[in-house]
Amino acid sequence: xxxxxxxxxxxxxxxxxxxxxxxxxxxxxxxxxxxxxxxxxxxxxxxxxxxxxxxxxxxxxxxxxxxxxxxxxxxxxxxxxxxxxxxxxxxxxxxxxxxxxxxxxxxxxxxxxxxxxxxxxxxxxxxxxxxxxxxxxxxxxxxxxxxxxxxxxxxxxxxxxxxxxxxxxxxxxxxxxxxxxxxxxxxxxxxxxxxxxxxxxxxxxxxxxxxxxxxxxxxxxxxxxxxxxxxxxxxxxxxxxxxxxxxxxxxxxxxxxxxxxxxxxxxxxxxxxxxxxxxxxxxxxxxxxxxxxxxxxxxxxxxxxxxxxxxxxxxxxxxxxxxxxxxxxxxxxxxxxxxxxxxxxxxxxxxxxxxxxxxxxxxxxxxxxxxxxxxxxxxxxxxxxxxxxxxxxxxxxxxxxxxxxxxxxxxxxxxxxxxxxxxxxxxxxxxxxxxxxxxxx
Length: 441
What we know:
By secondary structure, this protein is α/β, with parallel strands linked by helices. It has helices at residues 27-38, 73-90, 108-123, 133-139, 164-174, 218-223, 281-297, 307-311, 326-329, 339-352, 402-414; strands at residues 20-23, 43-46, 62-63, 101-105, 129-131, 149-153, 157-158, 178-180, 185-191, 194-200, 203-206, 210-212, 232-241, 251-253, 258-261, 267-270, 275-277, 301-303, 361-371, 378-381, 388-392. It is globular and about 65 Å long.
């Protein structure tokens, strides 16, 4: 079975005009559309497949400040508040709760790194607790093992990947926005030197603002517009197990495996940072820019196969606006699962948490984690195409910071005071080298 996903209704008719069009119905796209709609704009959200069907439903569900890079931490903090506020504002349930995130380790180097982050976090008002060996062993008693130490971040939490993006989409519909699934955006129109419309497979929407929140598809879409956006994807495979285990933390990370309680009472199991690099033309094109990232993280990556060619999301091809595009041939990125990783993940989880032996594997899936050269997303208006705002390359962090990113995008689009400083995210930085700038966590 693939990753679970709740469904949401589609608006039957495509509008001829809109104040803003959001391209991509993942967590960042839906929150951008939500905050724009709340400000009274007429917003159309177009999604080539289903709302939340790609990486937004295939992640762990963590919403964390702990171990965030300094550039992302302000957005992470704001996002936690916005996750809570969304439920109050809309009555919709994303599954978000501040259960706290729990880390265990027997590595002195790892513990030292977490302690350094704790000291940094204190300087910006974020609370995290280093745990002694006795404290970590007691809090981690479900493992039945002794630990050198750990971390507990009490204000962090989790949301439900299966329900979050659809819940936000329903809120958009309640506010009068429109949601269009199975409606790929093929490109844009430009008049007088600025954006004037979004061309979809079902017609053109006249608009002055378009937000590209296309996830792993963003770079190939930008290429059609003459915009160079370096992006590379890693194929990650994870699984879920049925309810049946008791006494486990809601969210636990170790170097061997991480576990997260799901909304149905089961657990998601994953190995942090692991994945396969599927070779594609785009991977080769941007390889020099990703060398700093690869140098930093090569130990956790393995060479993949030709899965990326089949998926088509990293093509260098140019496409016409009056004919089907690669996005219409691959409505939902659903790459092949790495069964070796699944077996390793499951065996490690059973060894770490014996209570999981009372569960069964309920689903396995893979997804493409799209990354930038420095591991920080690209968010900002493209200067060569006024009215076109890029929001992509979230590097595996997009789910947790989705509300803050969506709010920032709405701020940029409407000219309001930004919720966080937008400068660290602007895509113009990709014109420079990422050496010495790769995200710490």
